[in-house]
Amino acid sequence: MRHMLILGGGTAGTIMANKLASALDERDWRITVVDGTEEHYYQPGFLFVPFGMYRMRELVKPRRQYLPGRIKFILSSIDHIDAEKKTVTLSGGEALRYDYLILATGADIHPEQTEGLLDEEWGRSKFDFYTPKGANQLAQFLKGWQGGKLALSITEMPIKCPVAPLEFLFLADAYFTKRGMRDKVDLHLVTPLSGAFTKPTSSKVLGEFLERKGITVTPEFDLGRVDSQEKKLVAWDGTEVSYDLLVSIPTNMGDAAIARSSLGNELNFVPTNKETLKADGVEDVFVLGDASNLPSSKAGSVAHFQSEILFQNILEHIEGRPACAHFDGHANCFIESGFGKGLLIDFNYETEPLPGEFPLPGIGPFKLLEESPINHYGKMMFRWVYWNLLLRGMELPIEAEMSMAGKRVQS
Amino acid sequence: METMNVTGKAIQLDADGHLANRSDWNEDLARELAAQEGIPDLTPQHWTVVNFMRKVFEKEGDAPSIRRLTKESGVDTKTLYQLFPKGPAKRAAKIAGLPKPKGCI
Ligand SMILES: Cc1cc2nc3c(=O)[nH]c(=O)nc-3n(C[C@H](O)[C@H](O)[C@H](O)COP(=O)(O)OP(=O)(O)OC[C@H]3O[C@@H](n4cnc5c(N)ncnc54)[C@H](O)[C@@H]3O)c2cc1C
Question: Which CATH architecture has domain A111-251?
């Protein structure tokens, strides 16, 4: 019996377990998934919790429910991986031998990495919305807030879902408008990027959105420390931005188990071949989703596209053939823009987000890089797609490889 | 394509104003690039950073992040920002003759 071991039963691990369960013969293969918690959260939903649009309990399901019956699920924290000996040691000391290992341990926030961020004011005047606890606390706080300066601070890149901070501000604009107190709230984006987003065309479009909604941007701000007493952000070069309410996207890092296994870079992300998804420098180890150091977006849609490529490559590998499927960095993200509207962007390593229609040229129904109500429905529908199609490893009507059809290239 | 003139020789630059050909790089050129960035003098600490950047690029094909510089070059973050004001990773890469760091989204 050979053993396929998947570390992490989140978006990427669950998709892969489902795909492999129907492809690998039960007589030859055991498949195991290890995760430290029972609850699988729909993370894209966290964005809506602070504004009371979703409640946290609507966003969580038991992990096992999404794993096929033949998969063995082990509820345990992972201590470390020994890629030489091809074993994984669990926190209780038990060692699991593998033939193939898939690392899908994701990324998490680390406020303790920034001086002054994680102190007694964390959860009082400083919040995150990337964790269930943070999003809930912020929802509580916003209900009673009388207004002031809300600074949304991105500590450093890369972060999960790089458009989520912008969406948060768009939704905040709508939320305070509906409560009749938009004039009492000053919305501010403080980012290390040179504009609203990284790629030129979308950065310009999103930048205009921010401007129209009266959201101030402080670009190229590399956060050095937070002063909770004076309520200000201080950049490494001494520049300061004050706040009354801080919504922080702290440093995102891979799991500590990756560091304990000496498999990660300075942020515990695993150096990975950006086309084949094989971990650099070790045999029979693949990386899927947020855990890798790939320059693609850390997003559920990306984990889905990657899974189609990795699935083909693992099967080829098992048969002793060279990996021939290549990941192109494809990402597809709905961007909630507030007041029941949204945008959609579709891009890869080489092609930046462009305007147009998606997926059908001239028809859509979704509009690329342009605001429309249907894009908002797309985003809200994504929760259903996530639980019912995406996690189950089903084919979605979007190809893993990005298509230029419907996109308009700017001259 | 843009060029810059250094001691009579035309050096080609890429769209970001970084060296188009890494092989053009030498220490004099580094001083010239630094001056353009408003750094009149390259101290031994500047050189530590520049040489570290070149070493990493040689091996891995991309320039290191600030976090990695801090962790491995022996120069702390605060000092990095004093040496290369406003974006040490970008500026040091330029002076080291490397393309603009790819960065992540
Ligand atoms: C606020 C927010 C909004 C987002 N919005 C979107 C969106 O609109 N669209 C989109 O596509 N994506 C979005 N994302 C990103 C998306 O949720 C992630 O990219 C996706 O979940 C990544 O999947 P993953 O499997 O790599 O990681 P995860 O789903 O996070 O899974 C990692 C798993 O590994 C387990 N694990 C880690 N370390 C250990 C250990 N040592 N021992 C045991 N278990 C361990 C964890 O418990 C976890 O279950 C958003 C994320 C956030 C936070």
Answer: 3-Layer(bba) Sandwich (3.50)
